[in-house]
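Shift notes (night). Ran UDP-N-acetylenolpyruvoylglucosamine reductase while the centrifuge was going.
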Amino acid sequence: MALRLLPGPRFAERTTLRLGGRAAAELAMARPEDWEGLEQALAGSGGRPLALGWGSNLLAHDQDLDLCVVTLPEGEPLAVGQDEDGRVRVRAWGGLMLPRLVNWAAREGYSGLEPLAGIPGTVGGAVAMNAGSYGSETAALLARVLVWDAARGARWIEPGGWRAGYRAFWPEGLDQGAFWLALAAELSLAPARAQDVRLATDATLARKKASQPVSAATCGCVFKNPEGESAGRMLDELGFKGKSLGGMCFSPMHANFLVNEGRGSATAALELINRARASVWERFGVELELEVKVLA
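Came back to this:
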């Protein structure tokens, strides 16, 4: 089955924040090699391209949007070799759900992904956002990444072929703002006892469940942490923990998590975000940068 052009999905049904209107179209890749027809298909889709995985870091406006979402094949994780230092190369396709990969690694006894437990998203999204927690980042585990862009097609890049930072990853030589995809990733993981990896994975999950609204309709952290500071701490000090507006609220568990209480709207979410940013600027002189991606 080749690349399929489908009706555009409603972002309220395809994002974890449960907000947003309908996209113009969806291009679904059934196989990694479907990238060969992607440029032409995007040109005829009638929408701006957007890679959509789990939709866990997106805040989509309430109206319909002229976006064509691109979804990647999921596949199965596979150990493809061993490096000279004894670490194992694990290949995962961009559409694979990150929790599936984390659990697979725990069963197989491959260590390194434990801090990423509990992060909703796909492997491609984890690469593109350089997802991480508790001091760990996806980029630090990458041996190479299969990327695609319209100018050069698909190619593997290795360390030195990308720039990575806090919640940011960008292939070298790609124009800022250009559309690109992480079709697959090869991660370097350490062999370990499966029992030990499982215990560490479960410990991460327990820690997150104790302090984050992991079961709520949320987009995760709204703001990036300023250097040497915690956005959640500043918001908590200003009384934003639990503050609500129009069916949206900052979580009572963690002030940097925005939650849809079931009847929220993007309009209310953005107003709440703007109020929080203004308050932090007024009190601390810090301009908070969004971690969530706003679709308009």
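The mean pLDDT is 96. The chain has three domains: 4-71, 78-211, 218-295.
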